[in-house]
Amino acid sequence: MKKTIFSICLFLTFSFSSFGQCTPNFLFTALGVPGIYPPNIPIPGVPLTGIADGNVGSNYNQTLTTVIIQDTSLDITTLVPTLGTILNIAGINPVMTLTVNHVLVDVQGLPASLTYTCDQSNCQFPSGVDGCVQISGVPLQSGTFPIDVNMTINVEIPPINDPILGTTLYAGGPIDIPTFSAVQYDLNIEGATSLENSLELFSLHHNLSNGYIIFDLNQQSTISVYNIIGELVFKSEYRDKNFRLSKHDIGQGVFFLEFFKDNKRQIHKFIIN
């Protein structure tokens, strides 16, 4: 008979967020200047700069507004180098105004416990459609994390014909402009405030054969259990004696047990296999 194994690891504060659809900031979309906002440096007339700081164990939410470009002018030989000689012989200017099909947004450098979602499927924003990116989660470690918000712009190169002979020199089609960093931020995560006398908050017993853990509480507190994606799977108000958790109640996987008392919280991670 396979045993149920409980692994208990002590962590500092950790709270959880749920992902919802974000809302672009009108202040930035009204500017009409393509890019990712808020800016990472001050801009005259724009009161917001950089992203919010966070705290270990506390919900973190930051909305980034995306203002999406509609068209752009560039030398198409930078995208299709083989066209250089052809366009030169045909006397065609390689600098063209290209229609943007879509822009793919990608966020790199987030701490492992933070994720991002977009109000557009797969973070692919159609041409000229402004939107947003929501960074959410609960930081597990303090520090300063360099964040890159990258863009990959997909443009449409039109068919190119010989101006004299009328023959097709290039059939045209969509192509990606190489990915670039649209903006960089420094995400500062401060340490958490834990409960006083936290080591005396509870004692732990576990029964492997029956598959449950018993927590004997030394202080009255509110207890919540979240799964790895931040969903609340158990909650009990103002417990002051003991309570039992079983895999039959909450399932298997990684869980976070939150004790809350006097506006302070403490988190413990445990795994049920």
Textual characterization of the structure:
- With 273 residues, this protein is mainly beta.
- The chain has 2 domains: 165 residues, Jelly Rolls (Sandwich), CATH 2.60.120; 79 residues, Immunoglobulin-like (Sandwich), CATH 2.60.40.
- Helices cover 6% and strands 50% of the residues.
- The chain is elongated.
- The N terminus is likely disordered.
What does the radius of gyration come to? 26 Å
Low-confidence stretches: 1-20, 193-200
Helix content: under 10%
Give the rounded overall mean pLDDT: 79
Please name the defining characteristics of this protein.
about 270 residues; elongated; single chain; mainly beta; 2 domains; Jelly Rolls; Immunoglobulin-like
Q: What topology does this entry show?
A:
Layout (H helix, E strand, L loop, with lengths): L5 E5 L15 H4 L5 E3 L16 E2 L4 E8 L3 E5 L7 H8 L4 E14 L5 E5 L5 E3 L4 E7 L5 E15 L2 E2 L6 E3 L2 E4 L3 E11 L11 E6 L4 E6 L3 E7 L4 E8 L2 E5 H4 L2 E9 L2 E9 L1
Short structural summary:
With 273 residues, the protein is mainly β. It has helices at residues 26-29, 83-90, 247-250; strands at 6-10, 35-37, 54-55, 60-67, 71-75, 95-108, 114-118, 124-126, 131-137, 143-157, 160-161, 168-170, 173-176, 180-190, 202-207, 212-217, 221-227, 232-239, 242-246, 253-261, 264-272.
